[in-house]
């Protein structure tokens, strides 16, 4: 239209065309440079986080355990899943009395770990210290003590499982003992968001060798905000100097380097927790689009143990328990894990790796 209005002649048009052709490589180069700059900025922020936060004191021990565990299962071509579970904290003081916490009981991660074991996976269970754990989650609080009875005769004390509790305890105990006898589960614990970052990267470093046989199931509730180390007071904040003003910074999202750099061949599943139903699927889709991983499990805080939506590039699939199933204690994690294992199997086949169980 522009050409028609200005009535350019044929040779002027040809000249413009040639000019465009000669500029095209420069434009392409400019776009590449812009993309690289974006990566540098992004990596700068998570690298800066690692540079300014020391590893936890037990880090080297955990790193050795992770390496030994993955090497052993790699030699047998086992599938390995990293399950992260529980919430991370952000300390308000170096000698921590107060902290900001992310909500998560750890049920999702602990139950899922059991179902992955059932499916033949080796499980790295990376969890918040004192949150729910596989197998023991069934007997939290006073439940275990209520199952026991004690008999005292002269100097002899015997403790036994009550007859009506054997039915509940035996199957869990048998699965627990089988998993531990096979060395199929490794527990590593975190408390703060910085502990979590260090452990997650160390786990990814050793999982990279498993290629597509590695599965990451990132169910932990990770802090989005933190206080930079140099802004945290050493000692307990005192109330006599008035209400403290706390300036929070954004935590860099680890999904970006994890998917692109650390475990590029693994099957990565992240979670999206919302409290507003209208935001749930758009935000899950936006995460898939942004990080280019494989799956997002979307859940609403209030009904997270009854309903989730499995979001992949191709579809949104609802997993729903009936009220009766929920009351009967059925775990929604069983169908979630089934679905993920199906996708992971396809992923291994696509990448052409030997993914024997
Ligand atoms: O433990 P339960 O009580 O059973 O509850 C389970 C659950 C609700 C905690 C779980 O199902 C869940 O939704 N976990 C993820 C909660 C969460 O932190 O969502 P998010 O929108 O803040 O983060 C989304 C994803 O980004 C997460 O997979 C997280 O691993 C990742 N992330 C988050 C922060 C960060 N700095 N880097 C990240 O990579």
TrEMBL record:
One example of a Gene Ontology biological process annotation: coenzyme A biosynthetic process
Pfam short name (any one): DFP
Boundaries of every DNA/pantothenate metabolism flavoprotein C-terminal domain copy: 79-155, 215-323
Recorded GO MF terms: catalytic activity
InterPro entries per UniProt: CoaB-like_sf, DNA/pantothenate-metab_flavo_C
PANTHER family membership: CORNICHON-RELATED (PTHR12290)
Family stated for the protein in its record: Belongs to the PPC synthetase family.
Protein's recorded name: DNA/pantothenate metabolism flavoprotein C-terminal domain-containing protein
